[in-house]
UniProtKB/TrEMBL annotation:
Alphabetical keyword list: Signal
PROSITE patterns, alphabetized: THIOREDOXIN_2
InterPro entries in alphabetical order: Ssp411 (IPR024705), Ssp411-like_TRX (IPR004879), Thioredoxin_domain (IPR013766)
Organism: Zhongshania aquimaris
Protein name stated in the entry: DUF255 domain-containing protein
Superkingdom to which the source organism belongs: Bacteria
Lineage, uppermost ranks: Bacteria, Pseudomonadati, Pseudomonadota, Gammaproteobacteria, Cellvibrionales
């Protein structure tokens, strides 16, 4: 299958003429400032409060708020008199995005002149309501509620029996048996819940397998029938009211999960969904000089809903133009795409997908990597200097991507890069004073205390633990345990509706991954077939390596393998290894035996 479909250049130029309306904020009468410590210092000196508008460039209601609320003269006057106004694109600042993710987009946050959060509001605020709120805060700037940081006095690297039971109960009770996904009004794929259900199902729990398949099948209704790619979510408690933005995070999650589900049960529909998503990305979000863009807007004309537009066929849409594409190329989004593509390649053995994943990796190294091994976010394509902050979201996603590239290529360069990035996280983001890993590098000049994000720490615990098994370094496991200490806190668990990601992390940190090693020359076709068969297994927690003796020992050479007359594979688990495996078809049978499950369930 050909994965790249380019729009003819003349048509593209015509589309761009119609498709990129002026952003409302460009003509705003409010003097918006960027997020910086200087703004908070200025507020303290002037006695003014601060209003923070966290928006997303693809977000319909963010556009409406710019056009109707912030363009309102009364609102602008009230802000100018008593506030300093900050606007942040949540894709451009992962730390702010993590800190205020629960408030949706747009999020409106108020601070007093001392930099203390006093009021938070979620979603669109009409002009009259905003004017009243601005005046009310001036009259009484008392915090609406004070929520202290979660204190962890006895950090643990694993769940207690009771907390694990609580999380499992939360997982089971949160499922919408009628429609799939979580039992909430917003319908989308919650990736950790689906992955946990899929893995539990493949281990023999038929009810969990049915749950995973129900959600994955239902979520296909969010796929754009013309251009492919997935809309972010649906409202009204069903899958029939989509919000039409297509953000990279949504695309990578769908590619990864559908690829993993296809590897588990060979459902061709899942394979097609993953492949079609890549077709969409290559048509609309692939940059001509490397990497991928961040998102495509929900609206053709910003602030005007576009359901009628997305009901059109391809040529009819193109005649009107295409929704705005955010052409920033961020590390997190591109690294996450690499990880998704490595899973798709593993499941399909399509060399074009592997080639694309490696190309994105080379682009990240060339354009986003710092000299110390860490990665800049990418608000500018000028990589001649380091960003002032390192974000955990970027760097832990990069560790995952680099490790995944090592897994599918057996090229040790990628693993060495992953190790260097983990060291940068340790040196810049780790703090002994915090539970978990902070969302950004620690800087005492920051106006707000460091923030620890649960989603980022789930990823960090899992990724750093996997890296530990590849690297053999105890310091990588220590860093994984640091993230896990936050996740296992009972207060954190109690604050969640459901969080299967903690269960996944706990299971992985307390056992070894399934370990598959191919021993033989990389020039040998049978060794290559064994390697492909090893990659094709559905396990998400695994360590796959190809040892060509001519390259010297593996970086973590923790098992001695016999010298054999021909290439062979070995499957290891719980300090036991199989006898040599000489044919690709034997690998799933041996994995099934070792894992205690039925092959090809």
């Amino acid at each position: 299958m050909l994965y790249t479909y380019k729009i003819p250049s003349l048509i593209l130029l015509a589309m761009l003429h119609f498709a990129i309306p002026v952003h409302a904020a460009d003509n705003a009468i409010i003097s918006w400032r960027d997020w910086s410590p200087q703004v908070f210092s200025e507020a303290k000196k002037s006695g003014k409060h601060i209003i923070l508008n966290v928006e997303a460039v693809w977000c319909h209601w963010c556009h409406v708020m710019d056009q109707k609320t912030y363009a309102n003269p009364a609102v602008a006057a009230a802000i100018a008199k008593n506030y300093i106004a900050i606007k942040v694109d949540h894709d451009a600042n992962p730390e702010i995005a993590a800190r205020y993710r629960a408030w949706g987009w747009p999020a409106t946050i108020f601070y007093n002149s001392d930099g203390v959060e006093i009021v938070k509001r979620a979603g669109y605020i009409p002009p009259e309501s905003m004017t009243a709120l601005l005046l009310a805060i001036v009259r009484d700037p008392s915090p609406e509620r004070v929520v202290g940081a979660i204190s962890i006095t006895n950090p643990r690297s694993s769940l207690t029996v009771d907390d694990k039971a609580t999380l499992i109960a939360m997982h089971k009770s949160s499922f919408d048996a009628k429609s799939g996904s979580l039992a909430i009004a917003m319908k989308f794929i919650d990736p950790d819940s689906v992955e946990y259900a899929l893995l539990s199902g493949m281990a023999g729990d038929n009810s969990e397998l049915a749950r995973a398949n129900k959600t994955l099948t239902a979520a296909l209704k969010l796929e754009d029938p013309e251009w492919f790619g997935f809309y972010q979510y649906s409202t009204h408690g069903d899958w029939d009211h989509p919000h039409y933005e297509k953000i990279m995070r949504t695309q990578t999650r769908h590619i990864r999960l559908y690829a993993q589900a296809y590897a588990a049960n060979q459902n061709q529909t899942y394979k097609t969904a993953a492949e079609n998503t890549l077709i969409y990305l290559n048509r609309f979000l692939k940059a001509p000089n490397g990497g991928y863009y961040t998102s495509q807007d929900a609206d053709l004309i910003q602030g005007q809903k576009s359901a009628n537009y997305f009901a059109l066929k391809d040529k009819q849409r193109l005649a009107l133009g295409i929704p705005r594409v955010d052409e920033h190329r961020y590390t997190k989004e591109n690294a996450s795409l690499i990880s998704a593509l490595t899973r798709l390649y593993s499941a399909t053995n399509n060399i074009a997908i592997k080639t694309e994943a490696l190309a994105i990796g080379e682009w990240l190294l060339a354009s986003r990597q710092r000299k110390d091994g860490g990665f800049n976010h990418g608000n500018s394509d000028n990589n001649s200097h380091a960003d002032s902050k390192l974000f955990l979201a970027d760097n832990i996603s990069a560790v995952a991507a680099l490790t995944d590239l090592y897994e599918i290529s057996a090229d040790r360069k990628w693993l060495k890069q992953a190790i260097a990035t983990a060291d940068t996280i340790r040196e810049n983001i780790f703090s002994s004073e915090l539970a978990g890993l902070a969302a950004a590098s620690i800087d005492k000049s920051d106006p707000l205390a460091p923030y620890v994000d649960l989603e980022e720490n789930i990823l960090a615990a899992r990724v750093l633990n996997t890296l530990h098994h590849y690297s053999g370094r105890a310091i990588d496991k220590t860093l994984a345990d640091k993230a896990m200490a936050y996740l296992t806190n009972s207060a954190v668990i109690a604050s969640r509706y459901t969080e299967a990601g903690i269960l996944l992390a706990d299971a992985e940190l307390n056992r070894d991954p399934l370990h598959l090693v191919i021993v033989g020359p990389k020039s040998d076709t049978n060794a290559a077939a064994l390697f492909s068969a090893a990659l094709a297994n559905y396990q998400s927690y695994r360590r796959i390596e190809w040892w060509d003796r001519s390259e010297g020992e593996l970086i973590n050479h923790d098992v001695e393998y016999p010298e054999l007359a021909k290439s062979a594979a070995f499957v290891c688990n719980d300090q036991r290894c199989s006898t040599p495996i000489y044919t690709a078809k034997e690998i799933p049978e041996v994995i099934a035996l070792i894992e205690g499950i039925k092959a090809n369930r």
